[in-house]
Amino acid sequence: MNAFKPGLPIRSADLSLLTMYDLPSENPEEPGLPDQFHDWQPQLLSQTFRPLAVPPDQVLTAADLNVYYDPRNPRYYKRPDWFAVVGVPRFIEGGRLSYVRWQEGRSPVIVVELLSPNTIEEDQGLTLRGRQPPSKWEVYEQMLQVPYYVLFDRVGDTLQLFRLEDGLYKQQQDSRLWIAELGIGLGLWTGTFADWERRWLRWYDSEGRWIPSEPEKIAQEQQRADQERQRAELAEQRAREAEQRLQELNERLKAAGIDPEGL
Protein backbone atom coordinates (compact mmCIF):
# COMPACT_ATOMS: atom_id res chain seq x y z
CA MET A 1 0.00 0.00 0.00
CA ASN A 2 1.29 3.44 -0.89
CA ALA A 3 2.21 5.86 1.88
CA PHE A 4 -0.07 8.85 2.22
CA LYS A 5 0.96 11.64 -0.14
CA PRO A 6 -1.11 14.81 0.09
CA GLY A 7 0.27 16.02 -3.23
CA LEU A 8 3.23 17.99 -4.43
CA PRO A 9 3.14 21.48 -5.93
CA ILE A 10 2.97 21.59 -9.71
CA ARG A 11 6.13 23.31 -10.88
CA SER A 12 5.87 25.46 -13.95
CA ALA A 13 7.92 28.27 -15.43
CA ASP A 14 4.69 29.83 -16.67
CA LEU A 15 3.78 32.55 -14.17
CA SER A 16 0.61 33.41 -16.10
CA LEU A 17 -1.29 30.29 -15.00
CA LEU A 18 -4.94 30.99 -14.53
CA THR A 19 -6.26 31.37 -11.00
CA MET A 20 -9.74 30.74 -9.61
CA TYR A 21 -10.63 34.35 -10.45
CA ASP A 22 -10.04 33.63 -14.13
CA LEU A 23 -11.97 30.34 -14.24
CA PRO A 24 -15.75 29.91 -14.21
CA SER A 25 -17.24 28.68 -10.93
CA GLU A 26 -20.62 27.79 -12.43
CA ASN A 27 -21.95 26.13 -15.55
CA PRO A 28 -25.54 27.19 -16.30
CA GLU A 29 -25.99 24.13 -18.52
CA GLU A 30 -25.35 21.72 -15.62
CA PRO A 31 -28.36 20.64 -13.57
CA GLY A 32 -28.57 21.60 -9.91
CA LEU A 33 -28.40 19.23 -7.00
CA PRO A 34 -30.63 16.22 -7.77
CA ASP A 35 -32.27 16.05 -4.33
CA GLN A 36 -32.09 17.26 -0.73
CA PHE A 37 -29.91 14.34 0.26
CA HIS A 38 -27.13 15.74 -1.96
CA ASP A 39 -27.30 18.91 0.13
CA TRP A 40 -27.54 17.44 3.63
CA GLN A 41 -25.12 14.52 3.37
CA PRO A 42 -22.12 16.74 2.50
CA GLN A 43 -23.02 19.00 5.42
CA LEU A 44 -22.81 16.08 7.83
CA LEU A 45 -19.49 14.98 6.32
CA SER A 46 -18.01 18.46 6.69
CA GLN A 47 -19.30 18.91 10.24
CA THR A 48 -17.77 15.63 11.42
CA PHE A 49 -14.48 15.63 9.47
CA ARG A 50 -12.11 16.74 12.23
CA PRO A 51 -8.81 14.83 12.01
CA LEU A 52 -6.73 15.39 15.16
CA ALA A 53 -3.52 14.96 13.17
CA VAL A 54 -4.06 18.27 11.31
CA PRO A 55 -4.73 21.78 12.70
CA PRO A 56 -8.35 22.82 11.98
CA ASP A 57 -7.22 25.89 10.05
CA GLN A 58 -5.34 23.59 7.64
CA VAL A 59 -8.36 21.44 6.76
CA LEU A 60 -10.60 22.29 3.80
CA THR A 61 -13.89 20.54 3.09
CA ALA A 62 -16.15 21.46 0.21
CA ALA A 63 -19.22 20.26 -1.67
CA ASP A 64 -20.21 20.88 -5.26
CA LEU A 65 -17.15 23.07 -5.82
CA ASN A 66 -15.30 23.05 -9.15
CA VAL A 67 -11.90 21.34 -8.95
CA TYR A 68 -9.55 22.43 -11.73
CA TYR A 69 -6.85 19.81 -12.18
CA ASP A 70 -4.91 20.30 -15.44
CA PRO A 71 -2.93 23.49 -16.15
CA ARG A 72 -2.54 22.35 -19.77
CA ASN A 73 -6.33 22.29 -20.12
CA PRO A 74 -7.35 24.95 -17.60
CA ARG A 75 -11.03 24.85 -18.54
CA TYR A 76 -11.37 21.20 -17.53
CA TYR A 77 -12.83 20.60 -14.08
CA LYS A 78 -14.71 18.10 -11.97
CA ARG A 79 -17.27 18.92 -9.30
CA PRO A 80 -17.19 16.27 -6.52
CA ASP A 81 -20.21 15.89 -4.30
CA TRP A 82 -17.79 16.25 -1.36
CA PHE A 83 -14.05 16.33 -0.87
CA ALA A 84 -11.47 17.17 1.78
CA VAL A 85 -7.95 18.55 1.53
CA VAL A 86 -5.41 18.72 4.36
CA GLY A 87 -2.44 21.04 4.49
CA VAL A 88 -4.11 24.03 2.82
CA PRO A 89 -5.76 27.05 4.48
CA ARG A 90 -9.35 26.40 5.47
CA PHE A 91 -10.23 29.94 4.43
CA ILE A 92 -8.70 32.38 2.00
CA GLU A 93 -9.54 36.04 1.65
CA GLY A 94 -12.87 36.43 -0.11
CA GLY A 95 -13.59 32.70 0.03
CA ARG A 96 -12.83 30.11 -2.64
CA LEU A 97 -14.76 30.32 -5.90
CA SER A 98 -13.25 26.98 -6.92
CA TYR A 99 -10.31 24.74 -6.08
CA VAL A 100 -7.42 25.15 -8.50
CA ARG A 101 -4.99 22.28 -7.98
CA TRP A 102 -1.98 23.94 -9.55
CA GLN A 103 -2.44 27.02 -7.38
CA GLU A 104 -3.27 25.26 -4.09
CA GLY A 105 -0.45 22.73 -4.46
CA ARG A 106 -2.29 19.74 -2.93
CA SER A 107 -4.81 17.20 -4.11
CA PRO A 108 -7.82 16.12 -2.04
CA VAL A 109 -7.11 13.34 0.43
CA ILE A 110 -10.59 11.92 -0.14
CA VAL A 111 -13.46 12.35 -2.58
CA VAL A 112 -17.02 11.17 -1.92
CA GLU A 113 -19.51 10.79 -4.75
CA LEU A 114 -23.21 10.25 -4.00
CA LEU A 115 -24.47 7.97 -6.76
CA SER A 116 -27.31 9.18 -8.96
CA PRO A 117 -28.67 7.73 -12.23
CA ASN A 118 -27.11 10.46 -14.37
CA THR A 119 -23.54 9.98 -13.11
CA ILE A 120 -23.33 6.43 -11.75
CA GLU A 121 -21.37 4.97 -14.69
CA GLU A 122 -18.78 7.76 -14.68
CA ASP A 123 -18.50 7.67 -10.87
CA GLN A 124 -17.81 3.93 -10.97
CA GLY A 125 -15.25 4.18 -13.78
CA LEU A 126 -17.45 2.33 -16.28
CA THR A 127 -17.35 4.93 -19.06
CA LEU A 128 -14.97 4.73 -22.00
CA ARG A 129 -11.53 5.98 -21.06
CA GLY A 130 -9.22 8.20 -23.05
CA ARG A 131 -11.88 10.70 -24.06
CA GLN A 132 -11.52 14.43 -23.52
CA PRO A 133 -12.26 15.71 -21.01
CA PRO A 134 -11.38 12.61 -18.97
CA SER A 135 -13.89 10.95 -16.66
CA LYS A 136 -14.08 11.53 -12.91
CA TRP A 137 -12.47 8.17 -12.26
CA GLU A 138 -9.50 8.98 -14.49
CA VAL A 139 -9.06 12.43 -12.97
CA TYR A 140 -9.24 11.22 -9.36
CA GLU A 141 -7.06 8.16 -9.95
CA GLN A 142 -4.51 9.26 -12.54
CA MET A 143 -4.31 13.05 -12.45
CA LEU A 144 -5.15 14.13 -8.92
CA GLN A 145 -4.13 10.77 -7.42
CA VAL A 146 -6.67 11.10 -4.62
CA PRO A 147 -5.68 8.49 -2.00
CA TYR A 148 -9.27 7.57 -1.00
CA TYR A 149 -12.37 7.45 -3.17
CA VAL A 150 -15.82 6.62 -1.77
CA LEU A 151 -19.09 5.92 -3.57
CA PHE A 152 -22.34 5.92 -1.59
CA ASP A 153 -25.64 4.68 -2.98
CA ARG A 154 -28.34 6.12 -0.72
CA VAL A 155 -31.07 3.99 -2.31
CA GLY A 156 -29.51 0.72 -1.19
CA ASP A 157 -27.38 2.28 1.58
CA THR A 158 -24.30 0.62 0.09
CA LEU A 159 -20.70 1.77 0.16
CA GLN A 160 -17.87 1.22 -2.29
CA LEU A 161 -14.49 2.08 -0.81
CA PHE A 162 -11.37 2.51 -2.94
CA ARG A 163 -7.77 3.07 -1.93
CA LEU A 164 -5.03 4.20 -4.31
CA GLU A 165 -2.43 1.43 -4.46
CA ASP A 166 0.44 1.47 -6.94
CA GLY A 167 -1.29 4.23 -8.89
CA LEU A 168 -4.61 2.39 -9.30
CA TYR A 169 -7.79 2.23 -7.25
CA LYS A 170 -8.27 -1.04 -5.41
CA GLN A 171 -11.67 -1.72 -3.90
CA GLN A 172 -11.62 -2.41 -0.17
CA GLN A 173 -13.72 -5.18 1.32
CA ASP A 174 -14.19 -3.53 4.72
CA SER A 175 -17.51 -1.97 5.65
CA ARG A 176 -15.71 1.10 7.00
CA LEU A 177 -12.80 3.22 5.86
CA TRP A 178 -10.01 4.00 8.32
CA ILE A 179 -7.42 6.66 7.41
CA ALA A 180 -4.60 5.90 9.81
CA GLU A 181 -2.52 8.87 8.68
CA LEU A 182 -5.23 11.23 9.88
CA GLY A 183 -6.57 9.18 12.79
CA ILE A 184 -10.12 9.29 11.48
CA GLY A 185 -12.59 6.87 9.91
CA LEU A 186 -15.69 6.90 7.74
CA GLY A 187 -18.71 4.65 8.15
CA LEU A 188 -22.48 4.34 7.93
CA TRP A 189 -24.54 5.64 10.85
CA THR A 190 -28.27 5.31 11.42
CA GLY A 191 -29.69 8.40 13.04
CA THR A 192 -31.37 11.77 12.58
CA PHE A 193 -29.75 14.67 10.79
CA ALA A 194 -31.62 17.67 9.36
CA ASP A 195 -34.78 16.16 10.91
CA TRP A 196 -34.42 13.10 8.68
CA GLU A 197 -33.79 9.66 10.14
CA ARG A 198 -31.93 7.35 7.78
CA ARG A 199 -28.50 5.89 7.04
CA TRP A 200 -25.82 8.56 6.71
CA LEU A 201 -22.12 8.68 5.99
CA ARG A 202 -20.21 10.26 8.85
CA TRP A 203 -16.79 10.28 10.48
CA TYR A 204 -15.70 8.54 13.66
CA ASP A 205 -12.61 8.82 15.90
CA SER A 206 -9.91 6.37 16.96
CA GLU A 207 -12.15 5.04 19.74
CA GLY A 208 -14.91 4.22 17.26
CA ARG A 209 -17.10 7.07 18.54
CA TRP A 210 -19.09 9.11 16.05
CA ILE A 211 -17.69 12.63 15.87
CA PRO A 212 -20.51 15.01 16.85
CA SER A 213 -22.17 17.22 14.24
CA GLU A 214 -22.76 20.92 14.87
CA PRO A 215 -26.31 20.40 16.28
CA GLU A 216 -25.00 17.56 18.46
CA LYS A 217 -22.15 19.73 19.77
CA ILE A 218 -24.63 22.48 20.66
CA ALA A 219 -26.85 19.94 22.41
CA GLN A 220 -23.86 18.50 24.30
CA GLU A 221 -22.71 21.95 25.39
CA GLN A 222 -26.24 22.77 26.51
CA GLN A 223 -26.39 19.50 28.45
CA ARG A 224 -23.08 20.25 30.16
CA ALA A 225 -24.29 23.77 31.01
CA ASP A 226 -27.52 22.35 32.45
CA GLN A 227 -25.56 19.83 34.52
CA GLU A 228 -23.28 22.57 35.84
CA ARG A 229 -26.29 24.69 36.72
CA GLN A 230 -27.96 21.76 38.48
CA ARG A 231 -24.79 21.04 40.46
CA ALA A 232 -24.52 24.70 41.47
CA GLU A 233 -28.19 24.79 42.50
CA LEU A 234 -27.77 21.57 44.51
CA ALA A 235 -24.68 22.94 46.28
CA GLU A 236 -26.53 26.16 47.08
CA GLN A 237 -29.53 24.20 48.41
CA ARG A 238 -27.30 22.06 50.63
CA ALA A 239 -25.60 25.19 51.98
CA ARG A 240 -28.98 26.71 52.81
CA GLU A 241 -30.12 23.50 54.52
CA ALA A 242 -26.90 23.34 56.56
CA GLU A 243 -27.35 26.95 57.61
CA GLN A 244 -30.96 26.27 58.59
CA ARG A 245 -29.97 23.21 60.67
CA LEU A 246 -27.31 25.27 62.45
CA GLN A 247 -29.84 27.99 63.20
CA GLU A 248 -32.33 25.45 64.58
CA LEU A 249 -29.60 23.92 66.76
CA ASN A 250 -28.65 27.32 68.14
CA GLU A 251 -32.27 28.03 68.95
CA ARG A 252 -32.61 24.73 70.85
CA LEU A 253 -29.45 25.45 72.78
CA LYS A 254 -30.68 28.88 73.73
CA ALA A 255 -34.04 27.39 74.83
CA ALA A 256 -32.06 25.07 77.12
CA GLY A 257 -30.20 28.04 78.61
CA ILE A 258 -26.99 27.41 76.77
CA ASP A 259 -25.13 30.15 74.92
CA PRO A 260 -24.08 28.58 71.60
CA GLU A 261 -21.37 31.20 71.11
CA GLY A 262 -19.78 30.15 74.39
CA LEU A 263 -19.39 26.54 73.35
Automatic annotation (TrEMBL):
Family annotation (InterPro entries): Nuclease_put_TT1808, Restrct_endonuc-II-like, Uma2
Annotated region described as Disordered, given as residue ranges: 214-239
UniProt domain Putative restriction endonuclease: residue ranges: 21-188
CDD domains on file: DUF820-like
Protein name: Gll0350 protein
Organism per entry: Gloeobacter violaceus (strain ATCC 29082 / PCC 7421)
Lineage start: Bacteria, Bacillati, Cyanobacteriota, Cyanophyceae, Gloeobacterales
